[in-house]
Design goal:
The complex is a heterodimer of chains A (146) and B (127).
Chain A: E1 15-18, H1 21-30, H2 36-39, H3 41-46, H4 59-72, E2 83-92, E3 101-114, E4 117-127, E5 133-144
Antiparallel strand pairs in A: 1-3, 2-5, 3-4, 4-5
Chain B: E1 6-12, H1 18-26, H2 31-34, H3 36-41, H4 51-66, E2 72-79, E3 89-98, E4 104-112, E5 115-125
Antiparallel strand pairs in B: 1-3, 2-5, 3-4, 4-5
The chains are: A alpha+beta (146), B alpha+beta (127).
């Protein structure tokens, strides 16, 4: 089944995620982070941050609401039963702290067929309330037998 | 940090219910990660780790070595073999180059037993 490249370049409505202290703590504990800047408000402030710092990989939490509609989009046409997360690239800007509001926009960056597999690549750009880019993600999903 | 230097190895053993806590923390409730019966039904040995959890361990190895979260500028990974709960995961990292702008480029992998679950990973650090 050949892949359709018609959705390449498609964008989705941006979503905004309000970063909460307890969500940062919950995430940090689930990934076994012990750095007090993620867990202890006094330690974060003593280190010069306005509030608890989000670990860099917390980007998956604030990007998810924007990513889900893109991955589920019938125009993209991913067959979930055969999909694996093939690769991931994140580039980070200024650190995110609790109280930030992060807006994420997603684009279908590429759809290709190689070696009988479909490669579906999405780009997410996340921006804080001051307009700084805090994270750019490149998400590669591979569908076998495409 | 100089080319060839190894960063401290990270070792962590995700417990049996880790994938459920990570699902809640991340919002990714794909049943292959949280539903043992479903996972077996689709031919897996049981629930498997989220790739992005394993990537977070690779990220943690970098930030712990480089002095904190601000040092990690970029992380790029490929997911390969599946990660399993209750097995020790090891992240090893070696400095490949130090660029003129001071950015340290690190080659890093995550393994369980002899399976590389994250390979060809590259981190850029600004310690």
């Amino acid at each position: 089944m050949p892949v359709s490249t018609a959705a390449v370049g498609k964008t989705y409505p941006p979503t905004t995620y309000a970063v909460g202290r307890e969500k940062i703590r919950e995430y940090a504990r689930a990934v076994f982070e012990h750095d007090p800047r993620y867990l202890d408000l006094d330690a974060a402030r003593a280190a010069g941050y306005r509030d608890l710092v989000a670990p860099p990989m917390f980007c998956v939490v604030y990007s998810a609401p924007a990513m889900v509609p893109a991955i589920l989009d019938p125009d993209v046409g991913i067959d979930f039963a055969r999909m694996v997360h093939g690769g991931q690239d994140f580039r980070w800007g200024p650190l995110v702290v609790a109280g930030d509001e992060i807006t994420t926009a997603v684009t279908v960056a590429a759809i290709e067929e190689r070696d009988g597999k479909g490669f579906f690549v999405f780009e997410s750009v996340s921006t804080n309330q001051e307009g700084h880019t805090v994270c750019v993600g490149t998400w590669t999903n591979i569908v076998r037998g495409a | 940090m100089q080319p060839g230097d190894e960063l401290p190895e990270l070792r962590v053993t995700p417990d049996r219910y880790l994938t459920i806590r990570y699902a809640g923390a991340s919002g990714d409730f794909n049943p292959i990660h949280v539903d043992e019966a479903f996972a077996r039904q689709v031919g897996l040995p049981g629930t498997i780790l989220h790739g992005l959890w394993s990537m977070a361990q690779v990220a943690r190895a970098q930030t712990e070595a480089a002095g904190g979260p601000a040092a990690l500028r970029r992380l790029s990974v490929q997911f390969r073999g599946m990660g399993l709960p209750e097995r020790e995961l090891r992240v090893t990292s070696r400095v490949r180059e130090v660029r003129d702008d001071g950015v340290v480029v690190v080659d890093t992998v995550a393994e369980q037993d002899t399976t590389q679950i994250i390979r060809n990973a590259e981190a850029e650090l600004q310690p």
